[in-house]
Protein: Putative ATPase
Amino acid sequence: MRFIFRIVQKEIIVLLGGPGTGKSTLINELVARGYCCYPEISREVTLEAQKRGIEQLFLEQPLLFSEMLLEGRIQQFKKASEEPDNVVFIDRGIPDVVAYMDYIGDEYPEHFTDACENYKYSKTFILPPWEEIYKSDKERYENFEQALEIQEHLIETYKKYGYDLIEVPKDTVENRILYILDKI
Structure:
């Protein structure tokens, strides 16, 4: 009798896109379908700062905010690597931190770019700007035009670090999920 062993490679997949493109909605649906997912952490960081009296940490102390995000996203990547699931989805990735810092024109330490080079995602799905579903709130302060600019910085940054971006078409949540699952 001959046994054939297949090595299953861990897929750590990032969903990215500017603000309000539907990433969190897709993550929530993937969770509902039983997939291992890690949520966006910037709202958590923002809400924690607001509890301490800093209304918009990203606007008031962008480097501190970005340091906190970078550390949180590195921890997410490490935890995802240890998950028993073969496929893990993450809402935003490590290069997002660099893209946002470039968007606002701030400098950042070298360990930001080192992190982008040292922690690599298996696949990257980008959601395009979609004005019809875009909403601002207390944690998302950007207007739609700014969201478009951020999208360009995200594309540029991820390509700089060697990623092939798979664009998810504007469609129903169900069809977007099917599109993503078909590509993995």
Q: What stands out?
A: The mean pLDDT is 89. The chain has one domain: 11-183. The beta strands are 11-16, 36-38, 87-91, 123-126, 165-167. Residues 11-183 form a domain with the Rossmann fold fold (CATH 3.40.50.300).
